[in-house]
Structures are given as C-alpha cells and as structure tokens.
From TrEMBL, chains A, B:
Coiled coil: none annotated. Pfam families: Dak1 (PF02733). This is Dihydroxyacetone kinase subunit DhaK. GO terms for molecular function: kinase activity. Keywords: Kinase, Transferase. The lineage of its organism: Bacteria, Bacillati, Actinomycetota, Actinomycetes, Kitasatosporales. It comes from Streptomyces stramineus. Residues 5-326 form the DhaK domain. It comes from the Bacteria.
C-alpha cells in the first residue's frame, strides 16, 4: 500500500486535499472538508460523510452545486457526531442543513445524535437516508438496505436544488425522491485490503465473483464461478429492475469498485446499455468511472435512478467539485 | 477480469464510449474516437493514440480544448497507421494536424508511416514525441526515454492553443516546449494483468516495489523492500528534479497506476507537496487521480512540468472531455 502508517492514512489524505484544492477548506485535525465560500448566504447547507475508503465519495463531491461539507471517518468506520456538528455549523447560513446519510447502523446513529446536538445549537437540520442497494436486506453493517451508488445522485441533484436557493423542505423532499427512485447492485471480482488489516478483508478465490457485494466487502446474494461482463450486466441490471420498474428514462451510474480498469468499465457500460435496451428502459445520462469505491476492490456496480424533467435538469446543472465538474 | 473475452476488450470499451458519450463520434470498427464537431473550421487538429490499457488516456481526453481524435491500439500494443490516417482525415480542417506520440518504438514507427500517408492525401502533419520518463534510458519497448504522464500536459496545453486558433507551427512548438519542460517517475507496488495473458505481466513479490517502473510494467531502476509514501515521494520527486531543475512554478500530476485507492493517492500528493516545499519548488497546480494508468497496476507516478505564464493560462483554459473538464 502507498501509505506511511495505517494510523495516519485519513489525516494524510486530508493534508493532500488541503494542498491540492485551494477551493476547499480542510480541517485536518477536525476531519471536515468544507467549500471555501461556506456558508453561502441564504443557501441550505448539504452535509454528508461516512467511513473513508470510498473516495471520491464524499470529500471529492464538496463544492458549488453539490455538498457544502463532508466528514470522513476512519476507513470503513463512521465519522463521529462532533465532526458532523462542526460541518453543520460551518455551512449553516440560517437556511438549515440537510444531512445525507448512507444506511449503515453507525452512520445513522451518529448522524442522528449530531442532528440533535446541532439543533441544540440552533441549527435547523433535516436528514435523508440513502438505502438503494437491492442485493440484500440486513447485512454486516446495517439493518435494511445498504446505501451505495445512489448517494452520488442524491448529493448531485439535491445539491443543485440547494445551489438554486430551494428551501430546506424542498431540498429534503427532492433528496428523498431521488433515493426512492434509485436502486443499485454491485459485484466483486476481487477483495479489498484495508490499511489497518494489511490483507484482504474477505476471501474471494481467483475465478469466483460475489454477486451483490456491499461497498465494504459485505456478503451479497451468492458466489459463482466467474461470469462474462455481459452475464454480469444481465444479472445486475435485472436485480435493479426487479425492484425499480421504471416507466421512464433513467440516469445510470456504472461505477468501478476501485481496481477495475476504466477499459473494462466502459466495456461493462456497453453491456449495461445493451440490457437496458432489451428491457425497453431509455437511458437519459450515464456516468462511468470510480465514484463510490471500496479501496482496491475489483468489481463494479450499477445504479439506476428514474428521473423526471426536474431531476434531469438538476443533474445537468453546473457542478464544481474535485471529482465531478461540468457547466459553470 | 470484468470482460467478455480478451479478443473483444478494446471493441467492447469503444461500444461503451459510443453509448455513454454522445459528444464523441466513435468508429468501433475503425478504432477511432473523434469529437463530434470535427473538423472544426480553421482549427489545427490534435491526434494521439497508443496501446489500450492506459485509460482515460487517450480516448478520455478527446473533446473541446484537448484532443480532436484518439486511436486506441490493442492492449499495450501500438495502433496501426490506418487508424491514424483515418483520424487525421476526420479532424483536418485544412489547418493541419499534430500527432502527439509517446516514445515507444512501435508507436513512433506507425505514426511516422501515418504522417507520410496523410501527407500523400494532402494533409499537413507535424509530430511531437513525448519522452518524459527519467527512470531509464532505453527500455523494453523503446529506445530513449519513455513517454508517460507528460502526455496529459502536452495534450491539454497544446489542445488549448489549438482551440484558440493557433497555427500548426505554434501548436507544435508549444507541445515540444511542454514535453521538454516535463519529467516523470513512476513506482509499482503490484503488477498488472492483461486480458490476453490473464495473469500478472511481471513478477513483483508482496512487500517489494519497483522504482522507475514503466507504464507497461517495464523494469525501472531498482527493486526494494516496501517504502513509506513519504520515502517514495522523496525518491520520485528527487529523480524528477535531478533532471528538470525548475527555476519557477510547476504543474504537478500525481497519477495513479490504476488500482491504488484515491485515499492513498491524496496522501501521496501531500508527501509530494512536502518534498517540493523542502526543495523550494513552488507548485502552481496539482492534478490527482488515475489519468495515465496501467490496467490494474498498483502504484503511482509523479510528473512535473515547469510552466511560464502562457502555459499556465492554457492549462487553466476550458476543457470538455470525458476525463478532464473545467471552465466553459
């Protein structure tokens, strides 16, 4: 691993973000990444966070048109309420703050506690839970469905609405609508290694894959002998469509787990598009790349979000973050 | 690997690019990726290409403000002259075409032949060789220094000049200047696996690293027991500065080889900045991410480019490609 020691991995990365991104304010000690111009007058503040190891999620999505702040925890470990309260205080302009929380037990508990603490400080807080992963109900780290790729859609679309000046109630409702309109399914072709452990966190023999893996390597639905890209696309898209049943166009995220080459991801994207065509699901936009990762896991996930005209317009709206940038 | 069969990996990826990027024209059969609005009237056309497996290089850099076309070869194999001639013909508006060629024997031969063929068709062609890798002189695939990360700087800065309407002679001179002002050094912490071979292309035991590795896994300067991120930054930056000796600000690319998590890359970027500060080299801009990859190789490289005001202005100029986007 390209690290100094396991204990400083998150702090080292934050020092790097501070050095490289002058448009962000990075509190290395306090573990909060904030857009430099926060709080933006009259604007609802969007705060997210979670365990590290999923980069660019969430810190790479801080900036105009998306998150106002992110709180990174230790690798695969929830951040603590103090970080979230600090983030909320840094971004609140008086218009309130939305917490975007992936559904893992630790994150949910800590964000709930942070919401209470922030309210005590006079900050109005709403929270939205992201739980898009259709692979399993109840898993290693959570009760209910896990939160994965839809987080990017929620952060981008709600972020665009907040940037336009939408009030907290509307930003919250929109974030909830994006989550409810999104489903994901992921596969692992190779395990990931956390800095603390230094060896693979789960055992996945060469020539096998895990269908429905979680973003921390949690078990999925089943393990099989290696499948082709096309077969994996069939399985993943059908798993998503089994639960989503869109009756209109979708946003598609073809997301790399970390170690799968972009060459392979684009080939997989071709297969995802083929399956969606065969199922008569029109695709409005597709994003291909490593956005919600699991350290050096090999594999990919598919997230679909059924969009209406407003959601699509907000998806296309300008965004200026380290990892997602378009428009102006 | 997330593939169908090894034989269709490049075609599958091109089908994916065609499906996902309506702003590009992708000739899957002919293996050329072209910006949709090419040829742009009065504009010099920029064409690059090389073996696949380094994505997003080069196809991900096609678009306004960067490349007009890219020709992907098979994995780690030069594209053929026919592809390059097709690309040149597709982007030439009469203002001429610049070939940007990484210094590998096969690429150099094929781009030279393509330049002759294109000239026969009445297209004015200039070529610039990128040879920034200070690790070794002469290597597995080439005579002289290898071309690696500086390719991104050449394509971006020359691309911005061409977009502004600079004539071929000036775009060529600028591309040459960027290459001459750039040096790179890479390290591998784990080998990569090509689809055709299906097993690691070189042998790198756990707990060792290759200092000065090439982007196809070619041997570098030496193999050592694992070093810390800080020690690797010292070694890599000093190797670059031993040859570059900048007397002004630099652009820095902290590039991932493919399988190294962004979390680790940002930590490495912090160390690269520390070393540059200690060596009194000011950093104007830093780009961190997987831009010139080697399939699923673990590791990273550092590229520095000494910039003057014009080069920095052109670096900051708008770019709209799949992998690099800013401004408008």
């Amino acid at each position: 691993m390209l690290i100094n020691v396991a204990e400083t991995v998150v702090a080292d990365a934050l020092r790097g973000m501070a050095a490289v991104h002058p448009e962000l304010t990075v509190d290395v000690e306090g573990r909060v990444i904030v857009r430099r111009d926060a709080p933006v007058a009259g604007k609802v503040g969007l705060v997210s966070g979670g365990g590290s190891g999923h980069e660019p999620l969430h810190g790479g999505f801080v900036g105009a048109g998306m998150l106002d702040a992110a709180c990174p925890g230790e690798v695969f470990t929830s951040p603590v309420p103090d970080q979230m309260v600090r983030a909320a205080a840094a971004v609140d302009s008086g218009a309130g703050v939305l917490f975007i929380v992936k559904n893992y037990t630790g994150d949910v508990l800590n964000f709930n506690m942070a919401a209470e603490l922030a309210e005590d400080e006079g900050i109005q807080v709403a929270s939205v839970l992201v739980n898009d992963d259709v692979a399993v109900v109840d898993s290693t780290y959570t009760a209910g469905r896990r939160g994965t790729g839809a987080t990017l859609f929620v952060e981008k679309i709600a972020g665009a609405a907040a940037e336009e000046g939408a009030p907290l109630e509307r930003v919250e409702a929109l974030a909830r609508r994006v989550n409810e309109s999104s489903r994901s399914f992921g596969v692992a072709l190779g395990a990931c290694t956390t800095p603390a452990k230094g060896s693979p966190t789960f055992d996945l023999p060469d020539g096998e894959l895990e269908l429905g893996v979680g973003i921390h390597g949690e078990p999925g639905r089943e393990r099989r002998a290696m499948m082709t890209s096309g077969e994996i696309a069939d399985f993943a898209v059908d798993a998503v469509l089994g639960d989503l049943r869109p009756n209109g166009p979708v946003l598609a995220l073809v997301n790399g787990a970390g170690a799968t080459p972009l060459l392979e991801l684009y080939g997989f994207a071709a297969e995802v598009h083929r399956v969606l065509r065969e199922r008569d699901v029109p695709v409005a936009r597709t994003l291909v790349g490593n956005y919600v990762t699991s350290l050096d896991m090999a594999g990919a996930s598919v997230t679909l979000c059924q969009v209406d005209g407003e959601m699509l317009r907000l998806w296309d709206a300008p965004v200026q973050t380290p990892a997602l940038r378009w428009g102006r």
